[in-house]
Amino acid sequence: MTSSSRQLSRSIAMEEGEDVSVIIKTTLGNVEVMLYPWRAPKSVSCFLAHVDGKYYQNASFYRSTGGGEDVYSIVQGGIFPRLLAGVPVEQWADIAPPLSPVEHETTFETGLDNECGVVALARLQPGTAGSEFFINMADNKVLNTGADCSGRDGYGYATFGRVVRGLDVLRAIQRLERQGMPAIGALDGQVLSAPVQILSIDRM
């Protein structure tokens, strides 16, 4: 099958509401994720653009929360540590992601809450999500659209898939030692001392 034929078949599958499977290969094991383009077409297209562009090769899981005073429980991965490596803190704001950000899809639109095993896009302001993603390690109602939580904008985080195999790998990552990060106060105590390498993310 030619490259153009594969692309056409993928587009047809998304239009017909078929799920898309991807595998996240890490140094601690593999995680299989089912994506739902019929629920979250924009978020899935954004994620797959990074997958197909091989941007996640040598990325990492670098952040986790859960326990203590944390109000939600997640494991986060992506390419930011690679982009920021060797760049002075004062220049971090000037680092541009490799692809354009995606329009925000609410959990009202997708009908998929931030519950255990569900995958979502990380972001700053709504409409700024791109390469970074997280997996919910508990039912995190506070991350849903419309959640009433002090200090949050209420838009929630865009959900687009679910882990179908490999939660044990993610739990192992979540148990790893974390450290402070004075440069980004909001991440204090949430950055893994030794990030777990993502070897690749590929369609199955």
TrEMBL record:
Keywords: Isomerase, Rotamase. Residues 26-204 form the PPIase cyclophilin-type domain. It is an enzyme of class 5 (isomerase). GO terms for molecular function: peptidyl-prolyl cis-trans isomerase activity. Its EC number is 5.2.1.8. The keyword Nucleus does not apply. It holds the Pfam family Pro_isomerase. InterPro entries: Cyclophilin-like_dom_sf (IPR029000), Cyclophilin-type_PPIase_dom (IPR002130), E_coli_cyclophilin_A-like (IPR044665). It comes from the Bacteria. This is peptidylprolyl isomerase. It comes from Parahaliea mediterranea.
